[in-house]
Design brief:
The protein is of the alpha+beta class and about 180 residues long. The chain has one domain (about 35-180). The protein has helices at about 1-25, 35-60, 65-85; strands spanning about 85-95, 100-115, 120-135, 145-150, 150-155, 160-170, 175-180. The strands form two sheets. Strands 3-2-1-6-7 form a five-stranded antiparallel beta sheet, covered by helices on one side. A two-stranded antiparallel sheet has the order 4-5. A hairpin with a 2-residue loop joins strand 6 (about 160-170) and strand 7. The longest helix has 24 residues, at about 35-60. It is elongated.
């Protein structure tokens, strides 16, 4: 009779261990959505290229404002806007005394229609840029706040040449941000 009683406790202990390990074995997980590859790639390219442009300008004694404006307005904005859709970018460049912000967006400029045996519509899309000189004397402390897609980003103002950027994209209810 005693042997049967010991077997009962062993089987009971095994069942309790199985139940506890089953409860502890329930997996928890989080869904992680990474930034769209184009946003991450563009941010990486901008970090690298902006460093080279500023170094080139300082080394050769060129006007950095003109170099950076040429890069952002003439070259990079078209490349950027072709690579991304529904994405905004803000560049902040200059020094503490001569600081500018440039925002680039895609803008629909209208529709072109042709009717020859059927109708064809094209939507003309061009880049829209807004460049603003920032009055740094009115800024509290050494911080510049940039608002993009209802989110505020803070950058530290320095006496030397600066180049900051924020790339923001809303996609499928998610907001993706890349900045330096």
């Amino acid at each position: 009779m005693q042997n049967k009683r010991g077997q009962f406790y062993i089987i009971g202990a095994i069942l309790i261990v199985i139940a506890i390990s089953g409860i502890a074995g329930i997996n928890t997980y989080a869904i992680y959505k990474s930034n769209p590859r184009t946003i991450t790639d563009l941010g990486s390219e901008l970090r690298e290229e902006s460093l080279h442009i500023v170094e080139h300008g300082i080394y050769n004694g060129k006007n950095l404002k003109d170099l950076i404006e040429n890069f952002t307005d003439q070259k990079y904005s078209h490349y950027f806007l072709q690579k991304t859709q529904g994405t905004d970018i803000v560049f902040v460049y200059g020094n503490k005394k001569d600081l500018y912000a440039a925002q680039y967006k895609m803008q629909s400029t209208g529709t072109v229609s042709a009717t020859i045996g059927g109708s064809i519509n094209w939507e003309t899309v061009g880049s829209f840029s807004e460049i603003t000189k920032i009055d740094t004397t009115t800024l509290p402390g050494n911080k510049l706040k940039v608002k993009l897609l209802e989110k505020q980003f803070t950058f530290e103002l320095k006496d030397n040449e600066m180049f900051y950027f924020v790339i923001a994209k809303d996609e499928n209810g998610e907001r993706y941000i890349e900045r330096n």
